[in-house]
Amino acid sequence: MMSETGGLLHASVIFLLTAVLMVPLAKRLKLGAVLGYLLGGVLIGPSVLGLITAPESISQLSELGVVMLMFIIGLELSPRRLWVMRRAVFGAGLAQVILTGVLLALGAWQIFGQSWQAAVILGFGLALSSTAMGLQLLAERKEMSSPHGRQAFAILLFQDIAAIPLIALVPALGSAQASSGEGGAHLLQIVASIGLVVIGGRYLLRPVFRIVAKTGLQEVSTATALLVVMGTAWLMEWAHVSMALGAFLAGMLLADSEYRHELESQLEPFKGLLLGLFFIGVGMSADLSLLLTHPFMILGLALLLLALKLPLLALVGRMIGKLDSLSAIKLGLLLAAGGEFAFVLFGLARDNALFDNELHDILVMTITLSMALTPLILLLLSRRLIQAIPARTVPPEYEEVDDHHPRAVIVGMGRMGQIIARVLRAQRVPFVAFETEVDTISITRSIDNIAIYYGDPLRPGVLRTAGAEQAEFFIVATDDPDINLHITQAVRLRYPHMKVIARARNRQHVHKLWDLGAMPVRETFHSSVEMSRRVLQGLGLGEEQIEARLRRFREHDERVLREQHKVYDDEIAVFQTARQARAELETLFESDHLEQVPKALNPDANNKKCEE
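RE: above sequence
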């Protein structure tokens, strides 16, 4: 037990040290984080330093990074959003997979002499691209919202969906399971596991998250998020299906849930670390001896893969995705390399006697090399050939589903927050709202159908996943003054450009919010003024007189509030200014009354003035 614990600690220290040293170095050299992870994995792997001698021992752990990435992608993609994007996903994605898969399969069958069964798996496996690397490169280059970035996301999404039937197809084509007659049982396992994910995601997870949210314990919420991802991954592994695909399905079923942003913020730190571990694992698994013994073959196959996929991807992007030429080339460069699902697919093919060990190792090395070359090629071409891509209009289907650019963020959906949300929705102003009371969320969603989510805005991950940095206004409407101050302070620090409108409990609260640079709104002031109007009406004052008095009161109160802000931390000075303000207001009202009395006593003068 001690040796196992020591080995785990030893490996953890090496992985973390590799990430800390290699990624900043790669970023400094403008090579990108992905290449830094890959090179770090090669260095610590058995082929170079040998600090980790058994890369396969951490393969399952490293795959969790891709699993979490796919879960978060699923959270971003509700069924409605997927339907709106159907042309990009099932048009360009389907065309790319079929064109590339058929071409590569024919080449493997006719040129390299593989059996047709092996050629099908080889061709369609190499047609898949790396979702992890593609999205990471887009995020690093801040191109997720660009036309080619959105098209890349759509194609990657279809590839991830297409991996399900491909993985299910391997045992049917392989001699191992086909001869033993277990193909039908395996298919039943796949259907059962997917059915459990769909039923659980739709009917069980929301009640579970509701119960956990009511506890108010952050660690339990984190544990629940991890349980959903890892439990789904375990279920899919039991069925011999890709763990990542199960996580994607679970995420998609929760995409419309009020816990969407909370889940994403909980998993984001784990996803980043484990995704880095995945790339390190890919680098460690690279058998450099093959590169030394067959350098021209490995390099040639990697370049051939890039050379075949790039023009096909560019053609699909140009013809179906309606991209301009430079954007289509960038799309091809991003997705030309092999992907992580090919490792899973080819491993199954080897286990089912479709590939021998040598072919499997060559293919794995080819994919790894193509993934390592992609950031370098992107870097070189970005500097020399693709300096600037003209801005293009985002396709309408993306605008229709783009919920990551709210113009306002509302925190607190009580009485004030709900009114603000209804006004903004009626004005068609995109916004996102957060609340921590589970019952309030359920009622608001069921009655008003407002985009309200569970989440603590003091946690930066929650706001980031909701696209809060894009908003113009941040509205703090909770009924707790201390929480309002903390949220306002945090938002002003993170997003100094944003206008913060905050609910104020009293005058002292107004002063503190002013100090933080917010625009306070007193929660009872306007309603109290309106009640005063009703009282004055009942006393028989005319509407013009009432309006003049209340306008005078509002102006005077605002001026006094501004003056008190200079001394609000001095209690004696505040009391003194308050007494002076009351006396001054009485004097102002009395002077208004005296001005109106002569007019009432001399109606002829008023009539003469009107005639003039």
